[in-house]
Amino acid sequence: MEINKSNITGVLIRKPSDKIIKYLLNNENINNKRISIIKDEFNYINFKTTIYDYMNYEIKNKNIILKDDLKKIKDSLRIVGLSYLDLDRNINTLSESEKKLLSLALSLLSNPEVLIFLEPFNKLDLRNEKRLMFLLRKIKEKYDKTIIFISTNSNMLYKNTDYLIIYDDKLLKEGSTKELLEDVVFLKKNSLSIPEIVEFTYIAKSKYNVKIDYHSDIRDIIKDIYKHV
Prior knowledge:
Elements: E1 8-13, H1 19-25, E2 35-38, H2 51-61, H3 69-79, H4 96-108, E3 114-118, H5 126-143, E4 146-151, H6 154-160, E5 163-167, E6 171-176, H7 177-181, H8 184-189, H9 196-206, H10 218-228
Parallel strand pairs: 1-4, 1-5, 2-3, 3-4
Antiparallel strand pairs: 5-6
Helix pairs in contact: 3-4
């Protein structure tokens, strides 16, 4: 199984499973590296928890050794664009996108080399998904991180990853995201989700003999339709 930090790697699964995490952690390219796993749901200590309380709790709970805890907390929030937040603010008052960014800030406290996201854009609208994706690519390039997305959502993986691993209790296939998620026959055979934009193109090509190419952006498909139809 190839995991290259120059790519954003996606893992397509048919249903949620803890097995995939164990499988990834055995990979030679990330084994023995500092790893943070960012879950799709944000869980905090109690209803009255503040941002500072939670971040400080994470530092103590994970035995993270820092020269200056407060500086590290502020730096992590700055990197993800949350430096404007009051550290005494109750986490319960944050928006879903702010909670998602706070989860990322929490993961950065230990200075991980590998960031593994479970359903990274869950509960985010398209605008905030694009903002988070831009931020993650920036973090990957600036801080030399390996980024892995695990998801049942083939639409998201098709748009946002470069390399893909297809896993269903075992490795089924791996390679270029574009090539694997455009293999509609294989995806159907294994009961895996097909990106909507790929399925549309597949039907247009196979049933109606429309000469259009596969694209991850609907605007490119529209251009093809105007050009060939």
